[in-house]
Amino acid sequence: MRFRKKTNxxxxxxxxxIAIVIPCFLLGVLAxxxxxxxxxxxxxxxxxxxxxxxxxxxxxLEESLATIENSFSELNIQDISQKKEIFNNxxxxxxxxxxxxxxxxxSLENKTILxxxxxxxxxxxxxxxxxNINNSIPGNLWNGWQYEFMxxxxxxxxxxxxxxxxxxxxxxxxxxxxxxxxxxxxxxGDIPSALSIYDSIQNNYSQIYLQINIPLGIVSFIEKTGxxxxxxxxxxxxxxxxxxxxxxxGRHWELEQSYYNDYLxxxxxxxxxCKNSRNRILNSSLDKxxxxxxxxxxxxxxxxxxxxxxNGRESIVKSVYSAKNTANHRYKQALNxxxxxxxxxxxxxxxxxxxxxxxxxxxxxxxxxxxxxxASSVRFYWMIATNEGEFLAGSDKIxxxxxxxxxxxxxxxxxxxxxxxxxxxxxxxxxxxxGGGFFFYIFIAVLVILGFGLIFTLQTVxxxxxxxxxxxxxxxxxxxxxxxxxxxxxxxxxxxxxxxxSAERKEKYFTMxxxxxxxxxxxxxxxxxxxxIEAGQKQFHFEETDLAALTGxxxxxxxxxxxxxxxxxxxxxxxxxxxxxxxxxxxxQVLYNLIDNAVKYSGxxxxxxxxxxxxxxxxxxCVRDYGIGISKxxxxxxFQQFYRVEQELTGTVKGTGIGxxxxxxxxxxxxxxxxxxxxxxxxxxxxxxxxxxx
Length: 694
Description:
By secondary structure, the chain is of the alpha+beta class. It is 55% helix and 15% strand. The longest helix has 65 residues, at 9-73.
């Protein structure tokens, strides 16, 4: 059985084509070539402006680098002594601080020896300081060591060390004796005495080094921390560690890298232990310790960067004296994955000097500010990358599809690539930019024609304006209804795909996916059936049907879905119910829509009553809720297509406005009846009646 509904869509389409499409097409063809030509002109103009901007950027950078190089050339550096690989010089350090894009100043002696000016290195290369390989015990300490380590007679050992201390004025030996005395007192359990001696070492012998190049100051700090922890004084232990970190960060000792890392690790372990104690008194010191730790971690890469440069002396010497010189004697070099950019100045007496620039600071202090300044006036996006394509910096959210101007930095500048993109001007800007305003007038003409065509079309379909508004609302609502379950399914799928989920949660998520899929499926079925019924293309297959059994199946589907929402659905039906003639799929849809409405408009009530009754002529099914209800004046309107009750209580309830329309249409096909009883605030009752199959 098919039902067709006559419409005048073909007439509307014909008028639309005649009044709007054909004139706009002709004008569009006329304007297309001109617009393309104008666009090409605009792009060439943008390209010229961007190329000029890149040259300004390169020129500004060249002037900044040349200023620093000229200032360095004016320094009197020939008398500076650089006998060590890492040397100290106040004049050079002051110059580095004056020009913050300078990382370090270095010298090349006899074209072989590379030396760096110490610009606040945290640590030195391993093996930099010669170790005292004489680890034997001095003869005058032997008896004390025998008392302490062999006989474990700590009192006697302490008296022995103390006697030696009184008879010597050698500062290094006195420091070693005090360290031994503090160690013995700690072993004896006399913590206050040990702490007092370690304080004396910190104040007077901090820079004394033991045979294995360990400063006594560091030993005293580490041992004091151990003493405090031994007596559970975490507050003093943490305060001592904070002071120790401050001195490490302040370069109080010259340490090789491996020693430096070991001492940091010991300090970090103490901080972690103090955190675990959960003592609120420690919060201030913990914050200070974390601040110093972050400062050290921020400065470590610079020290490692400079030491890598120092260790690459052979490669640097080969590059400077064997390769062809670049502009202004500047060089670019990669060492262990790090990029270096430096200038070498020929010197006198076989000593050349050089400036190592910080590429990060060149980018941060010179390039980025200049680009942002030019971009604010010229209006463009920008990006800087290495020659290998690694992103370094750029504008936020560069739109896709823009043409670009890309160029490499000049030979005497860092090995980067600069790409500029013109800012999107938009469609209207293109029209206004057109020569003589010709294409702008064409655009106005198109608008005028579109306006007349729109008025003509609206007059033709004036009787359908209200329906069009309803359909527009319907499309918006359906889009939201489709998006909601799809979003839920996608979010759950992402969780299952990218996160480890327990079996129990997987089962829960799969159930949620199934429920959302059923909801989506029902919504799509409603829309498709509504479309088919409106077009008269819906086919119904009638057969003998038990309405009570069918209702029970649909109710079970809702019970599975509403278990977590505490809904209670009460279903009553006599044991024997007369059969009806109907399309099972269509009847299921009627039942689903009625129950779904009862659930959605139940308000604070969680109770729904469903009953089936029959006599020799009719089989009646009623769905009753105790929710928000419907005013009497709207009882007839609710079956109109796209109509939704407008009131505050229903404003947040999701719906398409076609559910009851489909119910009414299906009931008409089945020669059935539908009745509504509803009072606002008390609930609604929908009853449908079918003739008994005979």
